Amino acid sequence: MAEIIFQKKGKTAYIILNRPDQKNAINLGMRKGLRKAWEKINNDSQIRSVIITGGDKIFSAGQDLVELAEFRKKEPVADLPLNDLETFGANIKKPVIAAIGGYCLGAGFLLTLMASDVRIASNTAIFGMPEVKVGVPLSLGIPPIIAKHFPPAIALELLMLGNNLTAEEAYRNGYVNKIVPPENLLSVAEGYANNLNELSPLLIRNIKEILRYEIVPDLKTIALSNTKCLLCRQSKDYIEGLKAYKEKRKPQWKGA
Q1: Cβ of 150: how many Cβ atoms within 10 Å?
Q2: What are the residue ranges spanned by the domains of the chain?
């Protein structure tokens, strides 16, 4: 079964996260599929818009922590293969609409932060970065990326406390364009796509490129964030957090 389903209907491309039994947790297979999909979209002049979704039940529960724990046995510090901002849509040149239902957490949340320009959420959507609760340091410059999208107080709750945002809270903070019932999620996203398909692709591409400078942190800030992440990966707390998650128990933090 394909873990990323890629479809093309008229001028719109569809990317569907397809690991329902694993709550669409993002693993290597999905990262490979995302990279291929973005490349296809950028190279196809007939595609004017993109819809990315995990269905109306769940968008993504985040990184596949079971895969991560196994990888860390061999590579204590290095990043997972293809775990970079390009995989999460940093270089996509077409407008992307995220149709978000249910949990949108961690790496799934990052996917909507980096790739999408329009976000349609069902009233069941939940956004969050729960990594702090299991001791996983945030890579890929996620802290400053979050800080670019949310007010400081909300960014703090997401990053330092691991608190979630409801669809309504995300809408009030300007992250979500529209909240709809789950059964209307895809049709509303398609309405946005159809509108974009009728506009000048050159102008849309230019606007997207310009806005990127406002919502993506500078390279120095991302580098600092990633340095802190690498240091944390060498800590006892990091090892304990993943071990506790796998053993389904409460972590015993050492602060080192």
Answers
A1: 21
A2: 4-182+198-202
The span from the CA of 210 to the CA of 54, in Å, is 28
What is the spatial distance between Cα 137 and Cα 21, in angstroms, rounded to a whole number? Answer: 26
Structural contact between residues 32 and 15, judged by C-beta atoms closer than 8 angstroms: no
For the domain with range 4-182+198-202, which CATH number is right: 3.30.505.50, 1.10.220.10, 3.40.50.80, 3.90.226.10? 3.90.226.10
Name 196's Cβ contacts closer than 8 Å, sequence gap at least 6.
Answer: 48, 49, 95, 97, 204
| Ordered per-residue pLDDT tens for the chain, 256 residues | 899 999 999 999 999 999 999 999 999 999 999 999 999 999 999 999 999 999 999 999 999 988 887 887 787 777 888 889 999 999 999 999 999 999 999 999 999 999 999 999 999 999 999 999 988 899 999 999 999 999 999 999 999 999 999 999 999 999 999 999 999 999 999 999 999 999 999 999 999 999 988 888 988 898 899 899 988 988 999 888 888 888 889 999 998 8
Amino acid at 70: E
CA distances from 252 to 65, 237, 244 (A): 18, 8, 8
> Contact 85/113 with Cβ under 8 angstroms?
no
d(CA 15, CA 193): 13
Contact 35, 84 (CB under 8 A): no
Instruction: Measure the CA–CA gap between 13 and 114, rounded to whole angstroms.
Output: 17
C-beta of residue 225 within 8 angstroms of C-beta of residue 147: no
- 175 secondary structure, DSSP code: S
H or E stretch covering 14:
strand 12-17
